Structures are given as structure tokens and as C-alpha cells.
Give the backbone structure.
Amino acid sequence: MAAFVYMLQCADKSYYVGSATGDDLSNRITRHQAGCYRGYTYRRRPVRLVWSEHFDRITDAIAVERQIKGWSRAKKQALIAGNWTALALLAKRRGGKSRQSS
């Protein structure tokens, strides 16, 4: 089953990351905008779609959604801008050591 991972920018300039099944994301965004979901975006409307990616498998979409939710604001902004250089720099560990170092 296909799915999308998407990021919304809320009226308070915060970001919401979610996922939706199917091949059309427009209905999901319309429902966020209408306040159909009583969660994070409800009191932060209007919302604006700033990034999305389509996946053939829902398990892949869920994994990416969870990963992005843990990212810093700066890293999310780099993804939105398509700034792969900044994204790579922000992905480096703060201590400067790789996870696989001996």
C-alpha cells in the first residue's frame, strides 16, 4: 500500500510531520485545514504543506516519518529547502565521533 510522509508549517511557524496512505495527499491536507483532526494542528491553523514524499510501502513511510519527527528545526528547514549540503552537516554527530568508531 502506498503512502506519503508530509510536513506542514502551522500558523505559529512550527512544523507538523505526518503520514497518510493512498496516492493523493490533497484530501489529508484539506482535513487538517478544516480542523477534522483534534491534535497538534487543530489550534495552529491555517497550515501549509511545505514538503512531502511518496513511498510505495507504508512501512517505509512510517520509518521516515518517525525519523523526521526526531530532527531539529534546522534540519527540517534544510529538508524543506532541498539543501542537501546543510542537511548532511546537520546530520553529523555533535561530538564529532562516528557511531561506529572503535
Notes: Residues 3-91 form a domain with the GIY-YIG endonuclease fold (CATH 3.40.1440.10). The longest helix spans residues 58-69.
